[in-house]
Amino acid sequence: MAVPGIRNIADARQRLMANPESQTAWAQLDCGFAAVADVFDECYAAAKRVIAAEELADFLEAARVIGKLGRGAEPLLAFLEHWPNVVDVTRLPQAATLPLLMNAVRSLQKSPNGPAVTPLLQTLGAVTGRLRSAEALQHYLTLVLDHAQRTAGSIHGFQITQPSPSLAEFLGQTPRLLSVVSLAGLKRWMDDGIRLHGAHPEHQRAYFSLAAADSKAILQRERDGTLFTAVERRLSLTLAALWQDDSQLIPYSTAFSEIRQQPYLASDGMRLPDALDDQDGVSGLARYRAMLAHLAGHRRWSQPLVADNWSPLQRMAVETLEDARIDTLLLRRFPGLAPTLLALHPQPAEDACDPLEQNCLRHRLICLSRACLDARHDYRNPLLLEFASKFHALLAGSDASTPAIADLALSYVARSRQASDQFAKVYFTNTAVDYRDDNRYLWTFIEAGDEEECFTPAPSATSEEVIGLPPRHYPEWDCATQNYRPEWSAVYEALHPAGQAADIDRLLEKHAVLARQLKRLLDLLKPQDRVRLRYQEEGSELDLDVAVRALVDLKSGHLPESRINISHRTAGRDISVLLLIDLSQSLNETLPGSSQSILDTAREAVALLGWAIDQLGDACAIAGFHSNTRHEVRYHHIKGFSEAWDDSVKARLAAVEAGWSTRMGAAMRHAGRLLTARRTEKRILLVLTDGEPADLDVSDPHYLIADTKKAVEELSTAGISTFCLSLDPKADAYVGDIFGRNWRVLDRLERLPEQLPMVYLKLTR
Questions:
Q1: Is 420's pLDDT higher than 60?
Q2: 340 lies in the same domain as 197
Q3: Secondary element (H or E) of residue 226
Q4: Alpha-carbon distance 467 to 740, whole Å?
Q5: Rounded to an integer, what distance in angstroms lies between the CA atom of residue 31 and that of residue 16?
Q6: CATH number of the domain encompassing residue 721
Q7: Is the N or C terminus of the chain more exposed, i.e. has fewer CB atoms within 10 Å?
Q8: 457 domain residue, yes or no
Q9: What is the extent of the structural domain holding 549?
């Protein structure tokens, strides 16, 4: 800060400081930046408070070097502002950390990545607050230099001449990243990003700025603590067993939000954090169970209130006491929860908040909540004790109700009101009850018009491609990172356009001999509608032969047979089969020595199979798929499970055309979703394809093979059997890796109309 009365001087080196000691330091800095001169007095005073006197000279020398880099005033300002924070947070001697930083600065300055010095210095204070050791800081700086070197480019491949396209984004995110992952996890996340997107600058920037879906997915894998995905099944079983509640559990991210989120009840299920650390001696799993119990308690015992006539302060009081009521009822039903809830519930000191300086309403409410739950609390405030007693009296021998609690909360706010309750400066320390939800379920609003959706314009179809059903997004397995890319592929489903049903009838006439052979096999497999069960205690009719013998036994003095009735059961085939046809461009190729394409042959086979299934009466669906990158996987419905084999189905089959590529995993996941909804004893996905999984946006030939294999494993876990009939003579090299033992390669394509129905009959026998 300049001395009052002194006018701006062109040469900042002549600027006078308010403090003589600062004036000496300013001369040693030898800086000509006016922006630095304006703040140097304050920066040097902050440095003197945390840096040892004998180390101030090293601090100034480092600042002088940074000021001479030729990068302007920003790097120097960042160093002067943030380095004292580094020393203060780490509690380490400057001699152990400053050389590490300066070596990194010099390395960046000598390379094309010199502009990254500024973001490095700007984020260093927040980063070291997470690392807290000289060794960890050294590892971090080494990681930064490694990123700079591996992502920098060269024109001729001999010397680095182009700066890293993503180093600035990486440095900007590191404080946030190190709050959720370890330094080792950060390195693995960085390595995966460079390996996946090293050749694509734009993809790099998206990955390291956390804008890409795969970036978030890989980071999620590296997170510390208990992951939601690891305990989801146990939580679902707990919810079903204890609360008879089958609500869907949906995670929300805690790694990519600047605002602290709480669990909440939504229309589509219960929202929980995607990861939880151990806290106050309570494991992450126990914290999940506490959250789940509190949400289930709200759904069981709370009733929504109209929020329009309540002030924000009143709503806060109602929410706090209603949460306390729910916790009390939980402890009444499950006493074993007490250690967990009391360990997680804060216990702020009674006099921690000064009402003359801060808004203490939140603090008072949390103290009251603690007193309602913990009989051993040490609070002495008469008003707090009075309302804690009223709370217990209200719940004595009953569950009370939300409106009754609301009246109690309103009374407490009126009796405890203070002038400081209107202060903007709110006391938050030790007042967050993390296992409780945000209480959005508790309120309804009558006055409409301010909702966000009211201002969102309705989407308009810009082309024929977006008309129809919205896409369904599915994850995709990345074999390199051994993790899913969430919502990676978009599947568009539609009813296939119709052609001429007579074309399919002509194909069936062409294979009339084969159809007669199939008919004889089908008659053997066709289920009997009713099977008689004799010797039944109860039944729909009398078994005359057994009844006559029983009467003879009775007349002759012997014990008669009591099981003289007949009952019946249905012996139908409890089965659902979905035939998934690969409709990629390669099906347009013609068969050797024939003018007929592979697609025409496949159409004949499917027509014959459709006729055979109709004879059996099985529940069967037929669909086709092809893809144009991950953004457009087309899934065409040809026959539904409930549809008969009629002219409408034949017309769709007749119009089937081939094109594009084969993103098989996405199509199989969508088919699996449809099969999962079928409540039959046996569910089968039969895949007919002429080649390996491939797509335009995938260069690694093993990538989609691994993803399709993962899709098969997912379907197996869901109770769905898969089988592949391949028309590719080279399929032996990969089809076994995908489908295990459930596959067959057809070498003679002309035999497909004969073999496809046979494969079906074998699978469903």
A1: yes
A2: no
A3: strand 226-227
A4: 39
A5: 13
A6: 3.40.50.410
A7: C
A8: no
A9: 530-569
- Residue 637 CB: number of other CB atoms within 10 A? 17
- Tokens 């309804």 correspond to 444
Verify that 413 and 506 share a domain, yes or no: no
318 and 376 fall within a common domain: yes
Tell whether 540 and 646 lie within a shared domain.
no
Q: Which own/partner contact pairs does 226-230 have at CB distance under 8 Å and 24+ positions apart?
A: 226/275, 226/276, 226/277, 226/278, 226/283, 226/284, 226/285, 226/287, 226/288, 227/274, 227/275, 228/272, 228/273, 228/274, 228/275, 228/276, 228/288, 229/274
Number of domains in the chain: 4
Please give the distance of CA 397 from its chain centroid, rounded to a whole number: 43
Domain end (from 403, 429, 444): 444
Report the candidate in 279, 325, 295, 181 with the shortest Cα–Cα distance to residue 235: 295
pLDDT digits (tens, 9 = 90+) for 113-154: 999 999 999 999 888 877 767 788 888 999 999 999 999 876
Q: What is the mean pLDDT of residues 478-488?
A: 84
In sequence order, which ranges of 472-511 are alpha helices (DSSP H)? 501-510
Angle CA(639)–CA(737)–CA(725) in degrees, nearest 5? 35
In this structure, what is the dihedral angle of CA atoms 541, 546, 549, 550, given to the nearest 10 degrees?
-60
- Whether pTM > 0.70 for this model: the answer is no
> Phi and psi of 505, rounded to 5°?
-60, -40
- Do the domain assignments include residue 33? no
Mapped onto helix, strand or coil, the DSSP state of residue 475 is strand
The tokens describing 368, both together, are: 């009251």
| Cβ–Cβ < 8 Å for 399, 329 | yes
Q: Which residues contact 451 (CB under 8 A, 6 or more apart)?
A: none
**Does residue 755 share a domain with residue 653?**
yes
DSSP state at residue 153: B
Instruction: Establish if 357 belongs to a structural domain.
Output: yes
